[in-house]
Amino acid sequence: MAMAEPSRTQMTDGLGRRISYLRISVTDRCDLRCRYCMAEKMQFLPKNQVLTLEEIALLADLFVARGINKIRLTGGEPLVRRDIGDLVRRIGRHLGNGLDELTLTTNGTRLINHADMLADAGVRRINVSLDSLDPARFAHITRGGDIQAVFGGLKAAQAAGLAIKINMVALKGVNDGEILPMLRWCDAEGLDLTLIETMPLGETGEDRTDHYLPLSQVADDIRAHYALTPVSDRTGGPARYHSVAGMTARLGLITPLTNNFCADCNRIRMTCEGKIFMCLGHEDHVDFKTALREGGLPAVEPLIDRALRLKPARHDFRIGAGETAPATRRHMSVTGG
Ligand code: SAM
Ligand code: SF4
Fold first, then answer.
1. 76 Cα to the center of ligand 2, angstroms
2. DSSP state of 98
3. pTM attached to this predicted model
4. What sections of 22-74 are H helices per DSSP?
5. What pLDDT, on the 0 to 100 scale, is given for residue 326?
6. Which of 39, 126, 209, 232 is the most exposed place for a label (fewest CB within 10 A)?
7. Which residues make up the binding site for S-adenosyl-L-methionine (predicted)?
8. If you measure from the C-alpha of residue 198 to the centroid of ligand 2, how many angstroms do you get, rounded to a whole number?
């Protein structure tokens, strides 16, 4: 495949926002079926519709040349993709040479086998999703997951020297009683915690309205026990962080419903099919896969500018108040959380 000589201009969208952060969904497949994320009988894409690892790597090269300085690999579950280590190592070669950070979001079930590979490739921080510390509740939320595999993965990641942030989706009537215990556990284990509001993405066979829990309310409940002080440093993602009085764990809040931070959004997302979505909450996208397969990287580069023009001012998520349909038909696992 012909290599392009990409220009090194930075990417700025139509509203003047500098785009520097790319999330790549490396697969739509997963070994869990979290109730808020997927349907129980999820239909996954046929393999030939999914980008090869080489195609993902070529597109990552192009984006780094165009000013992306942070890449997060996600999915689906990125660690179920065969030979994922080849891709991590390949993208990791850009670290210190255009790329400042390579990170990963994982459910942790296969981390035990990959933690050393991630650290060797230059990954320094990972997010691990864990919505409950209770084995039975974890199995319920994930429709059958084994929490011991995640605990084993966390230990392996710590032994490999990776900094870990736990992602916990706050679910009313499911894990709301576990938020304070989770914060205390994270602090004791040397982990940070980010709480996430459930977003209306894709059909799951369940009603999200029932379990939607505004984090403004959760933060007030936490403040009754611990003073929270906003901290200014950002990781480039959508979370806003707080220090917690008496703890070393930091608390992040991702509040797309109660308080969106679209005005300074710096992110774009590439699906495992090579579609570039400029916003998690909109259907507009540009298809890089067809261009790449038909014309190589020179055919793809002009599409970046088309994609930049598509970035909307904000998403428009709503839950409750008569809203029953998801904001997009796409699941988070396709676009990449
Ligand atoms: N499988 C990996 C994992 O679970 O960490 C990576 C992909 S997952 C789609 C990324 C993140 O999105 C996870 O923290 C998950 O909890 C979150 N997520 C998935 N669906 C969501 C939804 N509808 N609303 C809010 N967060 C969601
Ligand atoms: Fe899989 Fe992650 Fe979605 Fe859970 S949240 S079903 S682990 S992709």
1. 6
2. T
3. 0.90
4. 53-65
5. 57
6. 232
7. 36, 76, 129, 199
8. 13
